[in-house]
Design goal:
The chain is mainly alpha-helical. It contains 5 helices and 2 strands; from the N terminus they run H-H-H-E-E-H-H. Strand 1 and strand 2 form a beta hairpin.
Length: about 120
């Protein structure tokens, strides 16, 4: 199934974000080998060169690394993974809070509503 990509932003950035999210969410584990460029490109329904660019950028950031002809692997740097996870969470919370303020909710109302929803959510 193709990945949900839009035309408003560069595709390679969206690919990077998607792979990064898969890594920090635990879909891929530290030390895991990533699928090949070609396999990921087919899965995402993008050109392999675009996927290659995304993976090269992730490699530059230290999130993945290459072993010559063995492919790319997820970093085993737990501190880096935790830092990225917290950065993503922080970004989502800031965006959420801005949207709630736009709807007219105060920070206290947002916190109260959030706590209520967490208590009622059977998945929690």
């Amino acid at each position: 199934m193709p990945w949900d990509l839009d035309n408003d932003r560069p595709i390679y950035l969206q690919l990077m974000e998607r792979i990064q999210r898969s890594i920090i969410s635990g879909e891929y584990h530290p030390g895991d080998r990533l699928p090949s460029v070609r396999d990921l490109a087919v899965e995402a329904a993008v050109n392999p060169n675009t996927m290659q660019k995304a993976l090269s950028e992730l490699e530059r950031s230290g999130l993945v690394y290459s072993l010559r002809t063995s492919g790319r692997y997820i970093t085993e740097d737990a501190d880096l993974l935790e830092k990225l996870k917290k950065e993503q969470a922080y970004s989502h919370i800031i965006e959420f809070m801005e949207k709630m303020r736009q709807l007219g909710f105060s920070d206290d109302e947002t916190l109260s509503l959030t706590q209520k929803i967490i208590k009622e959510d059977p998945k929690s």
